Amino acid sequence: MKIYFCGSIRGGRDDACVYEHVVKTLGKFGKVLTEHVGDSELTDTGEESQDVAIHDRDMEWLRQADVVVAEVTQPSLGVGYELGHAYLMRKRMLCLFRPSAGRTLSAMIRGAADGERMLVMDYNGEDDVDNILDNFFKIKPH
Q: Which of 37, 61, 74, 78 could staple 8 via S-S, CB 3.0–4.6 A?
């Protein structure tokens, strides 16, 4: 299974340790195409590659992905862009949101959740994330 993981890079790396844990856990279920998002050394300046190259590479990975998992607590234009494309590609998606961060998730994300193809799950810590991912990958899409 090919997994596309979305997390904020240029929008802020405050949750980099969370991304690192999610990417490591996702590795139990398949190949994470975007492992670099979980790299705690990656800063909010992103990679050294040209923006066009990053966009084109990531869009190709998104096309290849069987599922998309996004950590959406830190607002990010890039993550929103990826989720919009994944939605139009009819990818199965899971969005993880941590309410304890004091933010409110965009209605465009929470409102798109249909409980099947797109799920939004609130969590508090790593144990919650692990349980949510275990359950998500146990459920077979229709």
A: 74
Cβ atoms 45, 10 nearer than 8 A = yes
Amino acid letter, 58: D
pLDDT in tens, 45-76: 777 779 899 999 999 999 999 999 999 999 99
Task: For residues 98 and 74, give the distance between their C-alpha atoms in angstroms, rounded to a whole number.
Answer: 9
Q: Which amino acid, residue 86?
A: A
Residue carrying the six token digits 């234009």: 77
Residue pair 68/94 in contact by the 8 Å Cβ criterion: yes
Strand partners, 97: 122
CB 68 within 8 A of CB 7: no
Spatial CA neighbour of 33 closest among 8, 9, 71, 1: 1
- Residue 117 to residue 55: CA distance in whole angstroms: 24
